[in-house]
Design a protein that fits this description.
This is Lactoylglutathione lyase. One of its GO terms (molecular function) is lyase activity. Residues 11-136 form the VOC domain. Helices cover 20% and strands 32% of the residues. The protein is α+β, with helices and mostly antiparallel strands and 151 residues long. A hairpin with a 4-residue loop joins strand 3 and strand 4 (54-59). The longest helix has 13 residues, at 90-102. It starts with 13 loop residues before the first strand and ends with a strand.
Amino acid sequence: MSRELPAPVPRLTVITLGVSDIRASIAFYTALGFARRLKATGEAVAFFDTGGPVLALFPWDQLAADANLADKPRPSTFRGMTLAWNCRTREEVDAVLEFAVGEGAGLLKAAHETDYGGYSGYFTDPDGHPWEVVVAPGIEVGDDRRVHLAE
């Protein structure tokens, strides 16, 4: 006879990106202003405070092996996910995109009006992970750097 267990509390705590050159990726994310934590891990893995879930960087091949997935071929097209940097204003979107590109990001799509009343653009990190920089209706960014969603 099985006992019913309560459902666990869902939470997203860490987003781990597979990277080709961890040293270069650490430098890139540090240059974007994310604070590195647990530096004692050296270049084995890197953790960054994002104001929400932790961003982790881990060597691409090791992350694939850990997840029991093939390392190759590495996708050079859309990977089915994006990361987001929500902003308070359109001017902040423009400033973040300009700053990221100045720090070595690739510009995927210039900032533009969206069909849902927002304003967004895209950049990529050194491994091609896409980031949307966006201000969107119903999503506010608080002083705590966290997004607050309308009901």
